[in-house]
């Protein structure tokens, strides 16, 4: 009961005490309900990070495709950075790979909002579905000519 109160009043202290109890094998006094919630939240954060990084990557690929005159080093490097970060995230969390198709679909929805916000493109000018395969999304030579900017 004390741990639950501490969770609400001093989260940092709660984490220190929970870690100490876990490491010492002191199962009595563990705040199981809040521990489970926090662990679940950590997993959700990784999924959200994947979706957000895909949204940025896809948004920039859309801008690249639909506004060729505005292509530049900044867009190219954002695409490159997001590909690297996503690959690293999946390497460190391999089970996220099974969630990739769903994350692309969810990220694409946000990518459309970002592309519309950052350009003069209208919703009717944007693709309705993600036009890129998983292979294209992660291919450092896609779109063709990206390395030349």
TrEMBL record:
Record's Gene3D superfamilies?
Uncharcterised protein PF01724
Please report a single Pfam family linked to this protein. Answer: DUF29
> Would you tell me the protein name for this molecule?
DUF29 domain-containing protein
């Amino acid at each position: 009961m004390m741990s639950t109160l501490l969770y609400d009043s001093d989260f940092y202290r709660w984490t220190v005490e929970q870690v100490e109890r876990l490491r010492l094998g002191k199962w009595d006094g563990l705040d199981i309900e809040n521990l489970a919630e926090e662990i679940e939240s950590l997993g959700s954060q990784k999924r959200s990070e994947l979706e957000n990084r895909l949204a940025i990557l896809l948004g920039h690929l859309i801008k690249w495709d639909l506004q060729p005159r505005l292509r530049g080093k900044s867009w190219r490097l954002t695409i490159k950075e997001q590909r690297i970060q996503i690959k690293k995230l999946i390497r460190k969390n391999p089970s996220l790979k099974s969630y990739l198709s769903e994350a692309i679909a969810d990220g694409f929805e946000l990518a459309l909002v970002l592309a519309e916000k950052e350009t003069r493109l209208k919703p009717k000018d944007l693709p309705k579905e993600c036009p890129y395969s998983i292979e294209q999304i992660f291919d450092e030579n896609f779109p063709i000519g990206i390395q030349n900017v």
